[in-house]
Amino acid sequence: GMIGYDVALRLYHQLPIRRMLTVAVLVLVVVGVLVFQWLIPDVRVRVLIVSLSWLWAMGDSLLVLYQGRKTAPSPARAALICLYALVFGGAALRLAYFLLFPVSPTLSITDGSDWVNRMTPVLAILLPAAGSSAFMLMCYHHQYHIAHQRAMTDPLTGVGNRALLTL
């Protein structure tokens, strides 16, 4: 899902999609999770693999959003940057917790016995729920700006038209 958001942001900003890298990360995540789910059941390695892919996709998305803030500023973009930064920080803390503290290799991610496992669903739900709305608002703001510019200028000369003078 995070990689899908990254691809959508790159398409929105008309940036090249790193197809080979994206496919390689997806394959690594799927194979890694399957291996450490069935062959070597170790939740720490699964969390490491998934968290690193999350952090890569969110980091790239944050960079794309941050670089585009000058050319297409909007409150929705600022909200999306804050949301991505919040989820990025939460994913980094979750990864640090699993790496630094003794966690049973057979711990279930759905086990609600500690704060990290209770926080994980919040991270997983926060970005799709709020992020999709903020992304759509950012797209709306951009399209509104384009339509406003077209309405206020002559399409042939690019000079302001009568509608611009009546403002």
Topology (elements, then pairings):
Layout: H1 2-12, H2 19-39, H3 43-67, H4 75-100, H5 115-152, H6 162-165
Helix pairs in contact: 1-3, 2-3, 3-4, 4-5
The gist of it:
The chain is an all-alpha fold. The chain is built from 6 helices and no strands.
> How much is the average pLDDT?
81
Helical fraction equals over 70%
**H/E series, N to C?**
HHHHHH
Structural class, judged by helices and strands? Answer: mainly alpha
Q: Helical stretch count? A: 6
Low-confidence stretches: none
| Overall 3D form | elongated
Observed structural traits:
mainly alpha; single chain; 167 residues; elongated; 6 helices
Overall description:
The chain has 167 residues and is mostly helical. It has six helices and no strands. 75% of the residues lie in helices and 0% in strands. Helix 2 (19-39) runs antiparallel to helix 3 (43-67). The model has no long low-confidence stretch (mean pLDDT 81).
